[in-house]
Design goal:
This protein has about 210 residues and is α+β, with helices and mostly antiparallel strands. The protein has a single domain, classed as Inorganic pyrophosphatase (Inorganic Pyrophosphatase, Alpha-Beta Complex). About 15% of the residues lie in helices and about 30% in strands. The strands form two sheets. It has a five-stranded mixed beta barrel. The longest helix is centred in the last third of the chain and has 19 residues, at about 185-205. The radius of gyration is 17 Å and the shape is globular.
Amino acid sequence: MTTPPPPFYRFRPHPWHGLDAGPSAPSVVHAYIEITPFDTIKYEIDKATGYLRVDRPQSGSSQPPTLYGFIPRTYCGQRVAALSAPGVERADGDPLDICVISERAITRAEIVLNARVIGGIQMVDGGEADDKIVAVLDNDLFWGSSSELAELPKALLDRLSHYFSTYKLVPGQTGKVVIAGVYGRNHAELVVEAAMSDYAEAYGDAPPATLRF
């Protein structure tokens, strides 16, 4: 008997709305990568079309320490805000951001990968919750077995926190970003679940395309 060819999507799914959150969310999630550690331009998904848009050149000289993107079918709404720092009443209304650590250099953006959630950075931007989930490439030969933020070298975590506290700074202006703290895997998974629930409330829960990896 001839083996049938594998199925495929005739049209490209929207990276935010058309893909699922992950093979085992909230612990192993899909990450759509917008920016690599080699970029000095801030790229961001165009919410309407799903294409990658040039948002702005970075004002400073710093570059992201890791791969950076978002988890599909997540939305930072009231549930995410409730898990943020005291006094935070709203979130930024974007998909949930994620930083993915890989031992081997990944130089391309606009890719999708499996990421194992190990913690997060509690960032507040202009009074809005703007959490950054921290994860490792799921099958990474060096980092793949990591399960907690505490297993990362302190220098790497400090570099991530410093990047997010400074990457929006404009010379001559006062920054609006506050790093309220960092948290481990358990709280990070709660944030992912909250963002998935916020998405379902905001956009409905129609089934997305399922990735086969």
